[in-house]
Amino acid sequence: MSNPADLLRERGVPVTAQRLAVLQAVSNHPHATADIIAEDVRNRIGTISKQAVYDALGLLARKGLIRRIQPAGSPALFEDRVGDNHHHVICRSCGKTGDVDCAVGETPCLTAHSDSGFQIDEAEVIYWGTCPECLAAASEPAE
Length: 143
Description:
The chain has 143 residues and is α+β, with helices and mostly antiparallel strands. It folds into 2 domains: 4-69, Winged helix-like DNA-binding domain superfamily/Winged helix DNA-binding domain (Arc Repressor Mutant, subunit A); 84-139, Ferric-uptake regulator, C-terminal dimerisarion domain (Dna Ligase, domain 1), CATH 3.30.1490. It is built from 5 helices and 5 strands; from the N terminus they run ααααβββββα. It has helices at 4-10, 17-28, 34-45, 50-62, 132-139, and strands at 67-69, 77-79, 87-91, 97-100, 126-129. It is flat, with a radius of gyration of 18 Å. The chain starts with a helix and ends with a helix.
């Protein structure tokens, strides 16, 4: 990550210790929930309300400094990988989340049949499955 204070200034966001700590926490914990980010921020700067963390996350997402993803049936997750149209893979067992680069070549599922008058600028795909650790644990013999 570039200098976080410079990133905030470039997007017209006033620099505060809370925003810097939230931005750093998102960078340290890709695909983390707001609760995990809040815990990291508290460890970094001391007392901060959960609402202040939510407010900072919302502002940083609106300004394009972080990305908020909302998998079905799961809490929102935050990451600092922005500026590309990557997707995600999520383990159904443990919730582990990873990045998946966009498919190359012909990708008919990413081209809308009808745009209904919208100007489409992004497609969001979430792949669901089982991570290697959960697969290995499932194949271990029971004692």
